């Protein structure tokens, strides 16, 4: 294997309109492309961060739910780098997004905290 980088992360949401608003208007990701696939009654939204393609947001009718919390099996969380964690937490809170208390990583001595997307997917901000 000669992996270069992670190409994207795919997320299936329960409410496309709500999740699109969350990732675009609250977190500030940019839309690269939005496609409605009539044969599947499904949307696919390609999102970028600083020009880099990172998330595919999907909607599927009647998609089953999955346990989603940081210690559940499977994907643990999706983390975003920030330079000012306190300012980022304040901005998230002003947008109605609740965050956990800021913690300190005992190994890297960097600050981080968690919050959730509209479907409860754990998201992290990590101060660099």
Automatic annotation (TrEMBL):
<dbReference type="InterPro" id="IPR029068">
    <property type="entry name" value="Glyas_Bleomycin-R_OHBP_Dase"/>
</dbReference>
<dbReference type="InterPro" id="IPR051332">
    <property type="entry name" value="Fosfomycin_Res_Enzymes"/>
</dbReference>
<dbReference type="Pfam" id="PF00903">
    <property type="entry name" value="Glyoxalase"/>
</dbReference>
<keyword id="KW-0479">Metal-binding</keyword>
<dbReference type="InterPro" id="IPR037478">
    <property type="entry name" value="YwkD-like_dom"/>
</dbReference>
<feature type="domain" description="VOC">
    <location>
        <begin position="5"/>
        <end position="128"/>
    </location>
</feature>
<dbReference type="GO" id="GO:0046872">
    <property type="term" value="F:metal ion binding"/>
</dbReference>
<dbReference type="InterPro" id="IPR037523">
    <property type="entry name" value="VOC_core"/>
</dbReference>
<dbReference type="InterPro" id="IPR004360">
    <property type="entry name" value="Glyas_Fos-R_dOase_dom"/>
</dbReference>
<protein>
    <recommendedName>
        <fullName>VOC domain-containing protein</fullName>
    </recommendedName>
</protein>
């Amino acid at each position: 294997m000669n992996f270069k980088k992670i190409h994207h992360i795919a997320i299936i949401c329960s409410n496309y309109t709500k999740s699109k608003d969350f990732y675009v208007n609250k977190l500030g990701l940019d839309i690269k492309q939005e496609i409605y696939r009539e044969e599947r009654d499904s949307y696919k939204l390609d999102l970028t961060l600083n020009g880099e393609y990172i998330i595919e947001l999907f909607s599927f009718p009647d998609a089953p739910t999955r346990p989603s919390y940081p210690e559940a099996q499977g994907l643990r969380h999706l983390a975003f780098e920030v330079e000012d964690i306190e300012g980022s937490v304040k901005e998230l809170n002003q947008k109605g997004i609740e965050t956990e208390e800021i913690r300190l990583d005992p190994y890297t001595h960097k600050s981080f905290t968690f919050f959730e997307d509209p479907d409860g997917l754990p998201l992290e901000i990590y101060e660099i």
